[in-house]
Amino acid sequence: MREVEILVRLFENKEKVMRTLKRFELKEIITILDIYFYNPKSKKLLPDKRGVLKECFRLRKKVMIWPRKGHRSFLTYKKDLFEKSGKWLCSEEHEIEASDFQTAKEIVHHLGLTELIEIKNKRYVFNTPKYEIVFEDVEKLGLFLEVEYKHLKKRSIDSIKKDIWIFIESLNLRIGKELNEGKPALLLKKVGFGGKKNG
User: Fold this and answer.
1) Domains and CATH numbers, the chain
2) What is the pLDDT at residue 83?
């Protein structure tokens, strides 16, 4: 499945962001544990020389807090597509549900994959007819806003991203520029492999 979205840092407090987003339909509140893996015999699932993680394989544990309790687990392969300039365009994502998180983790380890980085966050997911809005509080990284366009049809990625930017700017929140990398790469740059700080 192709995803076209924009991810930005938020420079507001949590209360103001929630006040701003309450005009939209709150779909769910969840916590997420993501474990990203790599193959020690390959560079495919590792950041490149610029620190960009172009392909990743993760195991996700999603714990629902509201409107209902429960948990689900997923295995996902994700590939990011970039322009020649290096600007991120979109992602191709393939995902299946795993019935048991711990068993899935053991299977991945038996396949010879090693844990690259672990990310924990709390998400507030909102809906509009055109967008899914995700407000994230990410451990060790801070607050983020991710807006995904829900109906791609046959429009160009540039056209869709322009619409997303107009929507984000209409929220009147203090934000950073569009991030050209995901949270795994951001956290790796901050803490290094295995959660150990660089140099």
Assistant:
1) 2-192 (2.40.320.10)
2) 87
